[in-house]
User: Which sequence fits this backbone?
């Protein structure tokens, strides 16, 4: 079903191992990204939060989306550029989330790879806009550039808890858009 590339496989394994350790050792509080200015905030959390998850459904759907879209990007960019992209969008999503919460207020701690996943969705939509994907429900083909918006809308529409970090999703997509735009402008000058 999936053509999992080596780096994507390793990132999935890391996420699953961290999730198991979270539950076994009760270390979610150490890994989560806490609001800046609280006693719990530590700068390393901009990195660690994206490998921790809030529940079985959270990690399952994040890793399902990751396994669906990331291998194509890893093939396209290579493993080094893909890893830079993944970490940059994940950390960038965390920085934007923390910054908005610091200045606007609200929001608790955050966990999950969703910011980086939305970065991957944005990249996929920008690089392969006309690639047709098959929706599970309803089973119809849709172009990648529209899939990004549908998945973004679904996150908002299906959030009955109010606990989803929408700012982080937007942040990951925004960082991806900026990073790809920079890489494209550099690529024109270097023949990339």
Assistant:
């Amino acid at each position: 079903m999936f053509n999992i590339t080596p780096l994507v496989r390793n990132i999935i394994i890391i996420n699953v191992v961290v999730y198991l350790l979270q539950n076994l050792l009760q270390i979610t509080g150490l890994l989560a990204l806490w609001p800046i200015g609280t006693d719990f905030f530590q700068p390393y959390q901009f990195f660690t939060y994206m490998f921790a998850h809030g529940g079985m459904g959270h990690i399952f759907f994040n890793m399902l989306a990751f396994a669906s879209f990331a291998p194509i990007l890893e093939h396209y960019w290579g493993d080094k550029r893909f890893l830079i992209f993944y970490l940059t969008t994940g950390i960038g999503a965390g920085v934007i989330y923390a910054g908005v919460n610091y200045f606007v207020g609200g929001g608790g701690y955050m966990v999950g790879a969703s910011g980086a996943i939305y970065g991957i969705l944005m990249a996929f939509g920008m690089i392969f806009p006309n690639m047709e994907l098959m929706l599970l429900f309803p089973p119809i083909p849709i172009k990648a550039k529209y899939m990004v918006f549908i998945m973004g809308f679904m996150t908002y529409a299906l959030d009955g808890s109010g606990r989803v970090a929408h700012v982080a999703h937007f942040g990951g997509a925004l960082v991806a858009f900026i990073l790809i735009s920079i890489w494209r402008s550099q690529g024109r000058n270097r023949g990339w």
Summary: The beta strands are 132-134, 141-143.
